[in-house]
Amino acid sequence: MAPSRDSLPPASANLSNGLSKTQLEEWDRNGYLLIPDALSQTEVKELLDESNKMLHDFPLEEHPMTRFSTGESSDHVGDDYFLTSGDKVRFFFEEDAFDNQGNLTKPKNLAINKIGHYLHHLSPLFNKSSINSQNANIARDLGFKDPRVLQSMIICKQPEIGGRVPPHQDSVFLYTNPPSAVGFWYALEDCTVENGCLSFAAGSHKRAPIRDRFVRNEEGTGTTFAPNEGGQWPKGLEEDKEVKKEVYDLGEVKAGTLVLIHGNLLHKSEKNTSKKGRMIYTFHVIEGENEYDGKNWLQMSDNNSGFTRLNEAL
Fold it and tell me: What is the domain range of residue 107?
């Protein structure tokens, strides 16, 4: 189980100056870090209200009804609506929100899997919560020289239909050479075992290489997984042959918690079969000095100079 709120130092005492030595040691050891109260409850309410407004207000007319699968299949992300979302705000449905005839079985606000992928730039409230000195200080302490923000999302984990996410590594989907991705994951609602909280294979960022990449296919019309021919490790790591035997620690957190996730870390979440949703806001940071090539599924419509410099917040 995750540590209780009382067992961790309050974020307000640490994040104004970045991460503490204890937090950095825990990060290095586990590959993830839970930081309670990184958002105030006022900020949580503002972002949650804005998220719900977006879910209610987006139009269904002319929407391609693109579904986002959380399983191993990548067929769901082959359309233009997904591939051109890197610098836009778009809405992706849960797979289980439709009947066999393709009709929605839930109200649209309870049928969306996620909203992405440029909220940190196009939404003033989410921009404020992403590109700020708190996150810049954290990135600095994690060793980033030119941190760039990309792939910002509201992930809904809807009641009863929020899909299971199998074990995965974020650097597979946002690859740099060498790997550098770190997830910044802010809970906007309490995340529990019942509604599909995250689980982490602690220390797997030191054992699990980035063997594959999630890339655009050769035709540019869809996506696929391909062997990684570039760097697979941050420096100094050695492969563990027992990666498939990982044990996962539950990460139950309260609203307002920031979860940091190393790009090589294996993590997952289970299906939400409860009546309570689990909405979060997340974005990723990559090292701007590392190569980010055109094979990655997420690309800007012009070029990747659109990836926001987090250091601009300092």
Answer: 33-313
Contact present, 156 and 8 (Cβ < 8 Å)? no
Task: Determine phi and psi for 281, rounding to 5 degrees.
Answer: -120, 130
- Structure confidence at residue 13 (pLDDT): 37
Pairing of strands 67-68, 89-94: parallel
The answer to the question of residue 14 being in a domain is no
Please state whether the peptide bond connecting residue 117 to the residue before it is cis, i.e. omega within 30 degrees of 0.
yes
pLDDT at 244: 63
- List alpha helices for the chain, DSSP H: 21-30, 41-57, 80-83, 119-122, 124-130, 133-141, 170-173
Radius of gyration of the chain (CA): 18
- Looking at the 3D structure of the chain, how many domains does it have? 1
Measured CA to CA in angstroms, residue 197 lies from 46, 51, 294, 295 at distances of 22, 19, 33, 31
- Per-residue pLDDT tens digits for 9-31: 343 435 777 899 999 999 999 99
- With contact defined as beta carbons under 8 Å apart, do 196 and 278 qualify? yes
CA nearest to 82, candidates 66, 97, 94: 66
10: in domain: no
User: Is the model's pLDDT at 120 over the cut of 70?
Assistant: yes
Annotate 197-238 with DSSP letters as a single string.
Answer: -EEE-TTGGGT----EEEEE-TTSSSEEEEE--S--S-TT--
Buried b / exposed e over 174-202, threshold 16 CB at 10 Å, is bbbebbbbbbbbbbbbbbbeebbbbbbbb
Q: Domain holding 59: CATH number?
A: 2.60.120.620
For CA atoms 285, 286, 289, 294, the dihedral sign is negative
Is the CA virtual torsion 221, 227, 230, 233 positive or negative? positive
Domain contains 8:
no
- Closest by Cα among 201, 163, 205 to 73: 163
pLDDT in tens, 242-265: 556 899 999 999 999 999 999 999
As a whole number, mean pLDDT of residues 77-90 equals 89
pLDDT on residue 36: 97
